[in-house]
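User: Can you write out an input/output pair for a complex, sequences first and structure second?

Assistant: Here is one pair. Inputs:
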Amino acid sequence: MKREQASDWSLEFEKAIATSGLADDISRCISCGKCTGVCPVAAISPSYNPRQIIREVLLGNYERIVQSEEIWRCFWCANCAATCPSEIKYPLLMLYIRYFSMSHGAGKKHVDPFIRFVTKARQEAVTFQPGKPARLDEIRALRSSLGLSPLRIVSDDGIREYQKLFEITGTDEWLKNYQETPEVPINLSYLEGRILVQDDSNSGSEREA
Amino acid sequence: MEEYQRLSLIDPQRVANLPTPDKLFLFLSCTGSIEYPGTERAVRIVGEKLGIEFVESVDQTCCTGYMLTCNAVNPQLALASTSRNLSIPQEMGLDVGVFCNGCYGYLRELAHLLHSNPAFKEVGDKANEALGREKFRGHLKIYHVQELWYKQLEKLTSLVKRPLTGLKIAAHYGCHYLANKDVAIDDAQYPTFHEEIYKALGATPVVYKERRACCGYSVGRGFTHREETVLPHITNKMLSAAAAGVQLMTTTCPGCNTALDREQKTITARGNAVSIPVIDLSQLIAFALGAPVEQLGFKANTTPVLPVLERFIK
């Protein structure tokens, strides 16, 4: 069984988050736990604990965060941010942590389902436009009956500009890299505030249900 | 005075600071246009009654917030598209009205990041420059239409054509409006302004236990964690509403509406029979103001709406 190593820890992690410009100074956290108290995910999966995740980040236990299943559970409801007395924007921290995890090849299974939306949005500059002709006809009929355009259509210029944004912001390249990076299997998971470590030979029975 | 009103934490100063505009840029929502087009229609109907003209643009794209928060694109794309989308109303000299909590929250947060972080501002400015658009200067105001409706509550009350007497309505506020605690007109943990709107329309507001619980659908967890957390969460929420005798629920976000309306089918199929129609607050207001019911697009809903509204249609 793999054991945690002190060398896995790094204070650079907190610095990396600070320089990302996404999350504010999380060292202001006073560990009051209000975030966890109002968290709808923690109410259902007690192993998910925002206060603990902030703690791990501050302690530099980034290996544990990167490989964690827990970081993908957040609903992003921002109830924590609305209640935090230290004004920490936890959802933005979570966004950054997820990018960080992805840059280590983890968490792909939680991002893959959305790549098709991106591919389609790049073509139409609208998200969620369905592909099935029958569903499209249904929408056309309803919208027309309400005096709206049959479908929400972005102008050709708008679409061209949106696609150009994919090029100039490096998103096309980012997506290509993402797709070419092989997935690193996740082999850590939290269990009610503790950590379980497992290697590939383990059947996974120690995983939290 | 009812219990919920005694606990009201609405900020009178912020309400007073809201404008009563005669013209606004309407920021279109992808989910709204596709799942519940009646919402967009209802926003225009209520706007018309209050003397607000909504202007839209075919150049406005998706806000890109959903793809960003699902980590499916890099942050630079969302920053650049916010900068570009907001340059459109800026060129028109208009402030922005939004009817989706998602678009509202993302636009505000990303506009804030563009404004406060020079590196992000450069991403936005470079993009607009490459597209031949004005730089986004960050001075325009972004409002959610629900707060503009509340601002003109007295006028709305005087315009009611179908008083919703006896209809038990409950609120789902949606997190991405309330989480903007620096501007939201009400308290994030105990909001009450929707209940005041229901009262103004003649209905009976109902407070249920899981009122403040989120919809569970933002950032795509409905795709990745549906069985594990999202369904148990929505089941809890809808059962607590049913236990409180709620007949109708309103949202201010097409995304929340999709989650709470569509998932009732699965919840019922799994043995917890629940049937509470979920519509947008603007649709409810438009209905009470006498808009023809065919214009409100209730056909799009999975949980039938007409059974609870029928008795108010003359």
